[in-house]
Amino acid sequence: MGEYSKALSSYERSLEIFKIALPPNHPDFAQPYNNIGMVYDKMGEYSKALSSYERSLEIQKIALPSNHPNWAGPYNNIGMVYDKMGEYSKALSSLEISLENLKIALPPNHPLLATSYNNIGLVYYHMGEYSKAVSSYERSLEIRKIALPPNHPDFAQFYNNIAVVYDNMGKYSKALSSLERSLEIQKMALPSNHPDLAASYNNIASVCDKMGEYSKALSSYERSLEIQKIALPPNHPNWASSYNNIASVYSHMGEYSKALSSYEKSLEILKIALPPNHPLLATSYNNIGLVYYHMGEYSKALSLYERSLEIRKIALPPNHPGLATSCNSIGMVYYHMGEYSKALSWLERSLEILRKSVSSTHPDLVLVKIIIENLRNRF
């Protein structure tokens, strides 16, 4: 943050000098406003970034002819800020204007067009319009294939972007294919224990887990962890994430003792790395509780679920869905212990929170209502 403040001060001083030396709306003003916008963007002050980018664009519109290629830059920057602000229709509008300017000014396979298609794809992804996102990402990739040599390191990110969309569409085999291509390229470009390889193995494992290919998922998660142990200091929080992922696969495989061991390693690292009431600790206690629940050790599960709830009460707002999850978990343990009145009480608390935090058609809310209704009818 300190460096951003220095950069901002320098750019603003430059702008003041320009204001003294140049007439208003001189073309040279566009660059300082753009630079100031970039710093605000990196600082996360998106409204100020937007204001500076828009001022840069205004100056260029006065100084340059219609649809000049220099307009594309500010429109792109404005679009990406709107994306970060969650105003996706405005983001899309600006990015499409930027793309049209580039199409007029540049040859059809210029790398800047690839960047423009990629940015549009990102916005469609955030909007949940996955087919359009894939289409834009693939157009970007086509251009890069013409402009760059085969196996250029940049391709890894493009294949990864496409994979993320396919993953969200539930097209896991296509996602896996893109992730494996991304990994192949990274292996050529990066040292064998580079952290980016750990991330790729993790992504592959996640998709394999969803496909029910647990052995392959486990192998990839373990390779990711091996790299992290070499690349990162002992007990780095990323180790905890890897142990958690490995435990999750073991749980899906029904190997609960192995799952328990990995979850407990994850928890011990988080205890060292995080403050005592961090939400991730609550998740970790919940995960361990779930394994004991599957093992039929309900007293241990209950104790862990209650610890998870204690942390969430401190760390989260009163109607956060995470609290409903804890209440539901406790209720289900009491149900299996045969303490039906306690089960009903906790499930009703879960339902009360969900009614305040999610839509009436949310699957979690619908499921809790069904369980409560069954409990009331049965007992």
Automatic annotation (TrEMBL):
TPR repeats: 30-63, 114-147, 156-189, 198-231, 240-273, 282-315, 324-357
Signal peptide: none
InterPro entries: TPR-like_helical_dom_sf, TPR_rpt
Annotated localization: Cytoplasm, Cytoskeleton
This protein's GO CC annotations: kinesin complex; microtubule
Cited Pfam families: TPR_10, TPR_12
Keyword flag Ribonucleoprotein: no
Domain of life where this protein originates: Eukaryota
Keywords from the UniProt entry: Cytoplasm, Cytoskeleton, Microtubule, Motor protein, Repeat, TPR repeat
Family to which the UniProt record says this protein belongs: Belongs to the kinesin light chain family.
Quaternary structure, from the entry: Oligomeric complex composed of two heavy chains and two light chains.
Record's function text: Kinesin is a microtubule-associated force-producing protein that play a role in organelle transport.
Name of this chain's protein: Kinesin light chain
Phylogenetic lineage: Eukaryota, Metazoa, Spiralia, Gnathifera, Rotifera
